[in-house]
Every structure is written in structure tokens, then in C-alpha cells.
């Protein structure tokens, strides 16, 4: 069985903020002592810094920088694939990605699924970006490609998906922030979705 742990980087403004650094440290503490065979992180600074802080709690676990978990656009939907009232918001978000992110994203997104969801006996931790966490979640649930949109990941939240041969992927936890104090939860998340939680 493959266990994939996914985490969005800590709160950042270019580099990690002090809060983001603390989130990353606490994520490391959460994972310390658990089996992790490899850490893979986005080349982007905020993810690399998060990976360094998390990895400090995971001695002897190899750390690899991987474009497969980088900051790319996994899939660009057409308006027809989106709910009518959501479409303008979603398409504006998609338009914010660069030409390079548009061009390289779909290929990277497919390769990422092939690389990290094969049901080999491993536990891997991916430190990545919101849209990549939600890309894996939508794929695990068999949702349409466009459905990475309309789902959000909080900074340093933990999502765990297990892959077993012949079984549907099992979304074990999503956006778990139990390792963070209230003051460090839900950063990077749309404010209108967090108030009640
Ligand atoms: O989806 C986005 O808005 C960004 O491209 C990446 O998200 P991040 O804040 O998780 O890096």
C-alpha cells in the first residue's frame, strides 16, 4: 500500500513568514517518529523552506526537489466544465497562471499522478502548493479534471491518501490542522469558508 501525505507550504509572502515557519516546524513535529520514506518538495522558495523545517524532524529521510510537485497549473477548464456562477471566478484564477505554467502544467500533473499514486509499499510526503494538493484529491475521488478548482488547502495542513492495488484511493484525512494552534490554522484559505470552523 502506498501512503501519500500532502502538505501545502507554510504561510508565505515570498519567503515563509514567522507564522509559516512555525507551522512548518509543527508539521514536522506531527510527523516525527512516523514512517516516511521520502520527502519531495516544490522548487519554489516557500515550499523548499517548509521542506527544510519539516525535514529537520525527520532525520535520515531523503529530501528531493521535484518539479512534479511544483507551482504549475494542473488543468485549465473551459467555462462549460464549470458551474455558471463559479466560472468567472475560476477562470480568473486560471488566467493568473503564467504561460509557462499553462504549457507545462498538464504534463507535469499527469506525471505526478503516475509517479506518486502507484500502489508501491512506500510512505511519501509531498510539500507543495494548494492546487497540487487539490489535484491529487480530485483524482483520488475520480472527480472531473476541473474539480481541482473549488477545493482549497490551508497552509501546513495535512492531507493523507492511501493507494492499494485493486481498491479505490482512500482519502484518510483532508486539511487536517490538529497539529496547529488556533492562531495558526486556516491561513491561506478563503476567509468566507473558515469562519464556522
Ligand atoms: O494556486 C495558486 O494560487 C498558486 O499558484 C499557488 O498556491 P500556493 O499559495 O499554495 O503556492
From TrEMBL:
GO molecular function: hydrolase activity; phosphoglycerate mutase activity
Keyword annotations from UniProtKB, A to Z: Hydrolase, Isomerase
Record keyword Hydrolase present: yes
EC primary class: isomerase
EC number annotated for this UniProt entry: 5.4.2.12
InterPro entries reported for this sequence: His_Pase_superF_clade-1, His_PPase_superfam, Mito_Ser/Thr_phosphatase
A Pfam cross-reference name: His_Phos_1
Name listed for the protein in its UniProt record: Putative phosphoglycerate mutase
Annotated source species: Actinophytocola algeriensis
Amino acid at each position: 500500500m502506498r501512503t501519500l501525505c500532502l502538505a501545502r507550504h507554510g504561510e508565505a509572502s515570498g519567503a515563509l513568514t514567522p507564522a509559516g515557519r512555525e507551522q512548518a516546524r509543527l508539521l514536522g513535529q506531527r510527523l516525527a517518529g512516523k514512517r516516511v520514506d521520502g520527502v519531495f518538495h516544490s522548487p519554489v522558495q516557500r515550499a523548499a523552506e517548509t521542506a527544510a523545517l519539516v525535514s529537520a524532524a525527520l532525520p535520515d529521510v531523503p529530501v528531493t526537489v521535484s518539479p512534479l510537485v511544483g507551482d504549475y497549473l494542473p488543468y485549465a477548464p473551459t467555462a462549460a466544465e464549470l458551474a455558471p456562477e463559479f466560472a468567472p471566478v475560476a477562470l480568473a484564477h486560471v488566467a493568473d497562471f503564467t504561460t509557462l505554467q499553462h504549457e507545462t502544467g498538464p504534463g507535469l500533473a499527469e506525471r505526478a499522478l503516475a509517479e506518486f499514486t502507484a500502489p508501491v509499499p512506500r510512505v511519501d510526503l509531498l510539500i507543495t502548493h494548494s492546487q497540487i494538493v487539490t489535484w491529487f484529491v480530485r483524482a483520488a475521488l475520480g472527480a472531473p479534471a476541473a474539480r481541482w478548482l473549488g477545493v482549497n488547502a490551508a497552509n501546513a495542513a495535512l492531507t493523507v491518501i492511501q493507494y492499494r492495488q485493486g481498491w479505490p484511493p482512500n482519502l484518510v484525512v483532508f486539511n487536517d490542522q490538529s497539529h496547529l494552534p488556533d492562531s495558526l490554522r486556516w491561513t491561506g484559505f478563503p476567509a468566507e469558508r473558515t469562519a464556522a470552523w
